[in-house]
Specification:
Length: about 90
């Protein structure tokens, strides 16, 4: 459940790359450890992204990638709520 890379190419190089990795990590966390919120199905779990200072840039990038991925694969992200705050 940990990520790692054996080469420099494995690290994100843009905010969008990083946001995609954050979204994938969040989805995997919800699928692997759904018991952190008893009674909630992983694809219906509320998701709130917050950020301050430079973290606000990551929240914007994450929201952008989330909305793009939701268009590509609406089934996987159908019920994931997405309020984002900066």
């Amino acid at each position: 459940m940990f990520s790692f890379t054996n080469s420099e190419e494995g690290f994100p190089t843009t905010d969008e790359d990083l946001a995609f990795s954050l979204l994938q990590a969040t989805l995997q966390f919800m699928e692997v450890l759904p018991y952190f919120v008893p009674g909630v199905k992983p694809n219906q779990m509320p998701f709130y992204a917050f950020g301050e200072s430079y973290g606000g840039a990551y929240v914007i990038a994450l929201a952008h990638v989330y909305l793009k991925q939701r268009e590509i694969n609406p089934t996987r992200l159908k019920n994931l709520r997405y309020p984002f705050m900066i």
